Amino acid sequence: MPILKQGDYLIASIQSALSDSEVLELRDDLAERVGQFRARGIVVDVTALDVIDSFAARALRTIGSTAKLRGAETVLVGIQPDVAMAMVQFELDLQPLHTALDLEEGLAVLRRTARGGDDDGP
Amino acid sequence: MDHETCVEIESDADMVAARAAGRALAERLGFSRTDGTLIATAISEVARNILVHAGCGEILLHDVHERDRHGIVVVARDCGPGIQSVELALQDGWGSSGGLGLGLPGARRLMDEFTIESVPGDGTTVTMKKWRARDPLERLRREREQREQVWA
Between B3 and B121, whose confidence is greater? Predict the structure, then answer.
């Protein structure tokens, strides 16, 4: 899975539906790269994810908590409307992650958080 | 029943295939994209349950039609050790699969009908259904077809 570095931020773009083991691989990769690239923020783009079920939600929350312990904020972007509806009905939540509509908004959230400004999430 | 699909569940890649199959059937049956995602998410949970608790099993998908509604039926079958207490398995927070025990209760909330049959030592079968109402036009067309059949 491509993880791009842009300035102080890491951008992970999920390209297709993921199996559980691929979700865990992403989680572990990101935890490692935060240190390697001294990243201050992570954007995880989940536009291409077909579902966010209990397992994926937990792994995504872990990405956020782990990154936070390493000094980086995580923003989840691109949750599709149908996936959002399913998560609400499922009663899944993504705390302590920030969320934003798309990549651009996600980067804006990270910049605001870095300035110590208002916190959009969780 | 016009459509029937069976997906063997032996690895986590099979879960992705089962989700896709559920979404595809839901679409063929005229469910909305959102309903397709609810169904795919519920399938994901029951498929994981098969892998974690039994190691292997299968997911059967088929359609069901009634006068006023169409339905999709998902049957997840395994031949694992069975669930000791079905009631407990459906409580939030139960379970040991690393999903915080939200899997089955969550799947139940996503579907319209949800039943578990489990015999300790002889596997578990989860049956889930989701319905959508026939729209009025569809109903009229069907009623006309039936009248024509009676006259023919």
Answer: B3
pLDDT band with cut points at 50, 70 and 90 for residue B92: low
Contact B122, B79 (CB under 8 A): yes
- Angle A81-A86-A87 from CA coordinates, rounded to 5°: 95
Q: Smallest Cα–Cα separation from A30: which of A18, A19, A17, A43?
A: A43
Find the distance separating the first CA and the last CA of chain B, reported in whole Å. 24
Task: Write down the pTM of the prediction.
Answer: 0.88
Which of A50, A81, A90 comes nearest B19 by C-beta? Answer: A50
Mean residue pLDDT of chain A comes to 92
How far off is chain B from A100, nearest CA to CA, in Å?
A: 20
What domains lie within chain B, and their CATH numbers? 4-151 (3.30.565.10)
Measured CA angle at B33 (ends B12, A57), to 5 deg: 45
Q: How many Å apart are CA B30 and CA B26, to the nearest integer? A: 6
* A3-109: CATH class: alpha beta
Count Cβ atoms below 10 Å from residue B102 Cβ, excluding itself.
23
Q: Determine, for residues A92 and B106 on separate chains, whether the beta-carbon distance falls below 8 Å.
A: yes
Residues of chain B positioned with their CB less than 8 A from the CB of A54: 45, 99-100, 102-103, 106
| Nearest residue to A51 via CA among A75, A74, A80, A11 | A80
Model confidence at A83, pLDDT cuts 50, 70, 90, reads very high
Tell me whether residues A55 and B48 touch, CB distance under 8 A.
yes
